[in-house]
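Archive maintenance. Older records in this collection stored only the sequence; we are now back-filling the structure field for every entry so that each record is complete. The fields below show one back-filled record exactly as it appears after the update. Entries are processed alphabetically, and Acetylglutamate kinase is next in the queue.

ARCHIVE ENTRY
Title: Acetylglutamate kinase
Organism field: Rufibacter immobilis
Length field: 264
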Amino acid sequence: MQKLNVIKIGGNVLDNPAQLEQFLTDFASVQGPKVLVHGGGKIASELSKQLGIEPNMVNGRRITDADTLRVVTMVYGGLLNKNLVAQLQARGCNSLGLTGADANVIPAHKRPVKDIDYGFVGDVENPEQVNVTFLASLAEQGLTPVFAALTHDGQGSLLNTNADTIASTLAVALSRQFEVNLIYCFEKKGVLLDVEDETSVIHHLQPPYYAELKEQGAIFAGMLPKLDNAFSALQAGVKVVIIGDAAEIQDIAVVGKAGTKITL
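Back-filled structure field:
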């Protein structure tokens, strides 16, 4: 099968113009079919405040009422998404900005109200509902999809959806037709044993070692959801997951040359 990279870019890189410019230059040079996924929470929060809408976060998740949904749609689907596409075009990477609503690529459902009402937040349950035929046709045409962190409920409403979830959902779905590498790029060199020590990168992580590190409390708590998500993606058909520095995307895309390689 043909290799395809699904690459998610972290918010801290999006917020740093110099780092973002370098990342996009390097991303454009990655060979073969690829998909870029982005969020944009910090910029959405800044715009919300300018509009008099105070951001409301619970456990790191954004409560998305109707006004906040308008803001994240403007920021994720408009400002950030189209600027990323324009910058990639300038680098010779023919790109197409998308949300999960476009071509019904990623159907989702509104998160049920339990202890907390997250509002217009979307959860994706079934990667098999992803419109892989459409995405494969884009790859055949040499087009690179750039996905904003938005899905839809099939009833006319967009939904704010975690960008890591969108990346893993796309990776799992595309693994039916491609040999997929799922890559999470952020500002660190990889998964670190010591979050303050950039040299403490775990170069290869498999389930037994991961379980041992979790039991020891040796992994930064904020990394645990991303790692759990990574192992779930592997179990669902993704070939390999890599977490690493956006500045090393060219080496990361050559599996095993940089970052933390995660396998079963």
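Update note: The mean pLDDT is 94. The longest helix spans residues 66-90.
Entry marked complete.
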